[in-house]
Design goal:
Blueprint lengths: L1 E4 L5 H11 L1 H7 L2 E4 L1 H9 L4 E6 L6 H6 L9 E4 L1 H7 L8 E5 L16 E6 L4 H14 L3 E5 L8 H6 L9 E4 L1 H11 L2 E5 L5 E2 L9 E5 L8 H6 L2 E4 L11 H15 L5
Amino acid sequence: MIRQITSLQNPFIKTVLLLREKSRERKTQELFIIEGLREFNLAVSGGFLIQSVAFCPDLLSPEEVIKLSGYSFSSNLFEVSRQVYNRIAFRQDAEGIIALSRPRLYGLNDLRLPPNPLILILESVEKPGNLGAVLRTADAANIDAVIICDPLTDVYNPNTVRSSIGCIFTVPLSVSTTQDTIAWLSSRGISSYATSLGAELFYHTLDFRGPTAFVMGTESTGLSELWLSKADHTIKIPMGGKIDSMNVSVSAAIVIFEARRQRDFSS
């Protein structure tokens, strides 16, 4: 059954606005926002539990909505006016669909890894846009997992979901502490490579064909001393210009695709 909403005072609309603006609400309600056709399809295909869907018939017909990814709309399907949709959407007059979903994060021991995994670890990530961009890189390289250590931002911030263009639904994602992650890597026999401006080794001189985890910190402060002291190796990227660092998503792409190249892009 499709329910119609034309008022901004509707409880569902108020919920969406709260989830969009407040991390506390997302954590309390255990819900986050998905906006866009591609993002919705990737979430459903990835097994995320969709709780509610709102669509604007001026932008997306009910027939098109019903066909999406074979999702079952047995309840919580809302038809909203264009005015209401443009109030709750980040991209106004765009694709016409917004959904609320349960988050899904893996514990470290729940990650299903191949015998020779390639993993990316981010410590204290603080910018949702950076995290989303990194997830796009992770998807493009088809790496086995992304682990977020001691995050300073909500992983399911709407800006993360949007900037990842749905890749947050395609890459196994875990949140843990630095200490637990270091112990977990050791127990799995996965070599860690921490990126650091003070490293002596250039990334392209090392062999990443075995079980590998790249570890990256924030652009402002880099990695913690714990990671720098406990990582198996510290590496750096040659910098030939006036600045000494790059965006974390660019740095991640450089080292990850070097590992993929060494593995002939096959494992």
